[in-house]
Amino acid sequence: MGLRPARSERKLERPWTRYATKKTKSYIPTLPTPKIHQFNMGEQNDGYDVVLDLVAREPAQVRDNALEASRIVAQKFLEMKLAKSYFFKVLLYPHQIIREKPIAQGAGADRYSRGMKLAFGKPVRRAVQIKRGQTLFRLQTFKANLEVAKQALKKSSLKLTTPTQVIIKE
Q1: Which one of 27, 49, 51, 139 is CB 3.0 to 4.6 Å from 169, fit for a cystine?
Q2: Given 3.40.50.720, 3.90.1170.10, 3.30.70.100, 3.40.50.2020, which CATH number is that of 28-94+129-169?
Q3: DSSP character at residue 159
Q4: How far is CA 106 from each of CA 100, 118, 126, rounded to the nearest angstrom?
Q5: Can you say whether the dihedral through the CA atoms of 68, 79, 131, 7 is positive or negative?
Q6: For residues 120 and 99, is the Cβ–Cβ distance under 8 A?
Q7: What is the pLDDT along the chain (170 residues), one digit of tens a residue?
């Protein structure tokens, strides 16, 4: 089964979770592994002049695969243009678990689909819940590379489901 569109999981909602009163076991047996594995890229150096932050303008929920795609776009662009004269950091970790109840198709599917009112669903992926003004990525570089750094963050923001802006700190 393929991915559902990101618009179906963009809203910030507290997930409905049920818990056992008599049993101590969790209802979520296994958690899906996050798609994003690398959080620090480039060379960590104290001599960088400029710090750029990619900040969310609206609250949203971003899936881990979108976060990974955004990270890859920025890193490849920076690697191609700046070699190793930057430090790029992903500041968020996908903790939110997205669950899905598969939709049945075929004969008798209507009886199956109407079966559970508040279906718990199976954990399928993870997401990050972002608030307004929260920083997603931080990029440190030299003043000479400022335009390239802004371009990299702009390209990476196109992969995210929320509008963002680049804030420059010197």
Answers
A1: 51
A2: 3.90.1170.10
A3: T
A4: 19, 22, 29
A5: negative
A6: yes
A7: 577 777 667 677 766 544 445 555 555 667 778 788 889 888 888 888 999 999 999 998 888 999 999 999 999 999 998 888 899 999 998 888 887 776 666 666 666 566 656 566 777 888 888 999 999 999 999 999 899 999 999 999 999 988 999 999 87
Quote the tokens at residue 122. Answer: 């199976």
Q: What are the extents of the domains in the chain?
A: 28-94+129-169
What is d(CA 112, CA 97) in angstroms, rounded to the nearest whole number?
Answer: 24
Residue 114 CA to its chain's centroid (Å): 32
Q: Which residue has tokens 């776009």? A: 73
In the block, which residue shows the tokens 């971003």? 62
Distance CA 153, CA 158 (A): 9
pTM (whole model) above 0.85: no
